[in-house]
Amino acid sequence: MSLAGELDLGRIERFLALAWESGAQPLIVLTKADLVPDAVTLGHLVQDVETTAPGVTVLPVSALDGDGLDGLVALVSGGTSVLLGQSGAGKSTLANALLGDEVMVVQATRDADGKGRHTTTTRNLLALPGGGVLIDTPGLRGVGLWDAETGVGQVFAEIAELGEKCRFQDCAHESEPGCAVLAAIASGELGERRLESYRKLIRENQRIVAKTDARLRAEIRKDWKRKGAEGKAAMEAKRGRWRS
What we know:
By secondary structure, the protein is mainly alpha-helical. It has helices at 9-22, 39-52, 69-76, 91-99, 149-155, 157-163, 180-187, 192-210, 214-243; strands at residues 27-30, 57-60, 80-83, 124-127, 133-136. The protein contains nine helices and five strands, in the order αβαβαβαββααααα. A three-stranded mixed β-sheet has the order 3-5-4, covered by helices on one side. The protein has a two-stranded parallel sheet with strand order 1-2. Strand 1 (27-30), helix 2 and strand 2 form a beta-alpha-beta unit. The longest helix is centred in the C-terminal third of the chain and has 30 residues, at 214-243. The protein is elongated and about 75 Å long. The relative contact order is 0.11.
């Protein structure tokens, strides 16, 4: 992820869900750290990402001046690593820095919006000088899930832990009494953006799985009908109060 613009924490969570589901060990590399105005701001950005990615190493780097590259080299040497990110995130520039040579073609980001051009159009397997291999991939415009329930659970591990303290085992963390997740929101322990992102990825994953799982489709339809009935009952009760 590039630090040249505003960080998209939701996109980071989506990438992480796929990485965990695949069995890989995710590592978040925040590129273009030299564009952040000061060390304090950089520290806050790293902290925001660390909160979004529990249990994942977050490493700010600058391919321009070399800051953070030694740590990254140590982490990727001896294994197989894959670079994933949007166009303009600096993947190919980072690959060149790790290789110590201008192997991958790079282009500047557009001045108008700061977004990158699709420079890399193929997947490239590159041998690293210190051992191991690096796979550079084309920039991704969008990231979809595919049956990644386990990965989503790992990304939002703190919500799963809070959920174990809820009064009801099947708590949906919406309006149920005794919900530990909603209590954490109220106390400020858990951010609302984090819960909304969790709900979004869970819903998306359910829709994908439901395409091939008739039982889950039936459960989702049943839940829709229940919520519809509850909404209708609430409206009727509201109309009744107006009449009285």
